[in-house]
């Protein structure tokens, strides 16, 4: 079976600095949740961005569903990323000038999906995440937990092969964190979505089928 994500011999360094990541190898199976832990500055988020095709490694390659993403032409990489990768940010990254419905539907708008269909899909997801009564609300009007649920809906809207999450509960209180973790479990169960989650939180890491520790640039 083709892996959802395969990171092969990846190394990375900033200009004029020592290696931040050295010979990283990691494979995530379809439907598997892997949690990535390590001290601040160890390269967790950098590795996540490399897996998303946002930062090119100095060595190695990354395959999503068997496709080497760094062999894709630049003008097609964004489209491939949109179809295969959902990204959840710690800071939500919702647009305050757009309501929840439009925020969630945005990836479909960028792919050229017609308005009525993308709104229907966004409404379906927001209803499943118990946010249907917030369709017309703006991010700044609502709680952190509600904003993160909307961010998760946005990451799911195109049914990606894998979700990459960077400290998805880092800005939430303990009770809201438990709600979000339960939601991620339900998503994996319902859609068989693979996940790579960066965290320093033990409760979040308990969600993983495996826990991977990064130290001094190595797994």
Low-confidence stretches are none
Cα radius of gyration in angstroms: 17 Å
Share in β-strands: 15-25%
Indicate the structural class.
alpha/beta
How do the strands line up in the largest sheet?
6-7-8-3-9
Q: Count of DSSP E strands?
A: 9
Q: Helical segment tally?
A: 7
Instruction: Tell me, briefly, the overall form.
Output: globular
How widely separated are the two ends?
Answer: 24 Å
What key phrases describe this protein's structure?
alpha/beta; 36% helix; 4-stranded antiparallel sheet; 219 residues; single chain
Outline the structure in words.
A 5-stranded parallel β-sheet has the order 6-7-8-3-9. Strand 1 (5-13) and strand 2 (19-28) form a beta hairpin. The chain is 36% helix and 23% strand. It has 219 residues and is of the alpha/beta class. The mean pLDDT is 91.
What is this structure, in a nutshell?
This protein has 219 residues and is an alpha/beta fold. It has helices at 44-51, 74-84, 100-110, 115-128, 144-156, 174-191, 202-205, and strands at 5-13, 19-28, 33-37, 59-64, 67-68, 85-88, 162-166, 194-198, 210-213.
Layout: helices, strands, pairs:
Elements: E1 5-13, E2 19-28, E3 33-37, H1 44-51, E4 59-64, E5 67-68, H2 74-84, E6 85-88, H3 100-110, H4 115-128, H5 144-156, E7 162-166, H6 174-191, E8 194-198, H7 202-205, E9 210-213
Parallel strand pairs: 3-8, 3-9, 6-7, 7-8
Antiparallel strand pairs: 1-2, 1-4, 4-5
């Amino acid at each position: 079976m083709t892996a959802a994500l395969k990171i092969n011999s990846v190394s990375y360094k900033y200009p004029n600095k020592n290696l931040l990541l050295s010979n990283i190898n990691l494979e995530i199976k379809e439907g598997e949740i892997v949690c990535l832990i390590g001290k601040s500055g160890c390269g967790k988020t950098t590795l996540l961005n490399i897996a998303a095709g946002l930062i090119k490694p100095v060595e190695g390659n990354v395959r999503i569903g068997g496709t080497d993403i760094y062999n894709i032409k630049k003008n097609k990489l964004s489209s491939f990323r949109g179809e295969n990768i959902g990204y959840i940010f710690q800071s939500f990254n919702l647009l305050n000038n757009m309501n929840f419905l439009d925020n969630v539907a945005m990836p479909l708008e960028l792919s050229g999906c017609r308005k009525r269909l993308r709104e229907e899909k966004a409404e379906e997801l927001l209803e499943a995440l118990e946010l249907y009564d917030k369709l017309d609300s703006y991010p700044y009007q609502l709680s952190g937990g509600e904003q993160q649920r909307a961010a998760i809906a946005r990451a799911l809207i195109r049914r990606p092969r894998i979700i990459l999450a960077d400290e998805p509960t880092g800005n939430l209180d303990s009770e809201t964190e438990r709600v979000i973790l339960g939601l991620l479990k339900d998503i994996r169960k319902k859609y068989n979505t693979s996940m790579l989650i960066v965290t320093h939180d033990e409760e979040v890491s308990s969600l993983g089928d495996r826990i991977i520790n990064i130290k001094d640039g190595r797994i």
